[in-house]
Input
Amino acid sequence: MSKEILAVKNLNVTLDEEEIIKDLSFEVKEGEVLIILGPNGAGKTTLLRTLVGLLPYEGEIRWATRNISYLPPQELFQRKALPPLSIEEFFKFKRVSSAQILEILDSVGLDSSILKKRFGTLSTGQFQRMIIAWALVSEPSVLLFDEPTAGIDIGGQETIYSLLHKFWSKGNLTILLVTHDLDIVWEHANNVLCLNKKMLCYGKPREILTPEGLEELYGAGIKFYEHTHR
Amino acid sequence: MQLFLALMIGAFIGGVAGYLGTLMLSQRMALVAGPLGHLTLPGVALALIFGFDVSLGAFPFVILGIVLIWLFEMRTGLPMEALTAIVFASGVAITFLFLPSEEETTALIGNMSQISIGVTIMTLILSLIIFFATKIIYSKMVLASISEDFDKVEGIDLRKYNLVYLVCIALMVALGVRIVGSLMTAALVAIPACTSRNLSKNLVQYSYMGLISGSLACVLGILGSDFTGIPTGPLIIITSALFFLISLIFKK
Output
């Protein structure tokens, strides 16, 4: 039985007098992949940002580690109109050695020539690989990742998830992932948290992702395909 | 001796303005030094009338202006740029109620003809303080311009960094009015930064090329002024603008 890395109890988040998250409690074990599902405006991004201490909250958030890496959603990223920041300089923010940088770039399939490129000039695919490398270069215990595949084609999405899976399978990395992609849930998640302001369901994908459950979460009309071939 | 002191002051203020300007451009604040420069006018006018140092007169008025804009924003919720227009235009207007006409040129476009050793030393020290303070906040501010969340996750208090940043800008403007007057302080930060942006491939090149081109424009402007008798301020800005035009040829 692996140990608990995050415990959330009776979490309430209110922003601008609007209740975003209501009485949420759950736990995450070391090495677990927890996927957070929910419709737009359900509080998923707010939850991740609250967990890393960016937003005020009531209730209890207890981390068993301080070594946490967080990647905000695309819309909170500025990629253009920046000063001429090179990728090498972007990695230097992390205070890691050059050898570590080269090693992690290699493991996401990028070579060292990217270090001289400017932050704003990478293609979307390169950028996603690079940002995963950046998030993981300091060898965090936990990665919180908010919709990593938004706006990326199917090939690119597969690359990102297989990269994440590769890092996860190497060690004790715990991953909390916000996504809309149900395929990924079936394939990679240990546990799923369905959120729509309050928690609607929590547990193993197979137990809780039923047609009824999804309808409650996303509203009527969602199509349901269970993956039986895996 | 006067020329030497002027060159020292020019090299330091121009350099630090160019360096700080690269950060301001990356925060899209390059033009802010303009209205802030205008805000110094009443203080510069008082300094000229009562015979004390222009930077000393300028600084409290920049701070007063920033505080007023901030208070109005809190009270009205109107856009910052509109409130800035109200405050700086009023400042300029009030100045002309009492500024003697023979001092107008000095107030508007600067004057470097009478510089004491004390003023030079003070300017060099303040320039160095601005430079090192900017250097400390630089990379964190750039990281914040990609996503503020990165800094906050690391526990960096961006409000504190923003305060240091604003104080640096205010100090720099107060120093800048001496050499280019209150009309052209924006050019002192904006032009070297744009020149550098055209030429640099990474952040280190970008920040230091801003410093070098800012410093060089001031030195050449002051030398040119000594040679031709044309006022220093305009010559510095024209030199800087020429650098920018040249940088277009080599744009990376």
Summary: The helical segments of chain A are 44-51, 87-92, 98-107, 124-136, 154-170, 182-188, 205-208, 211-218.
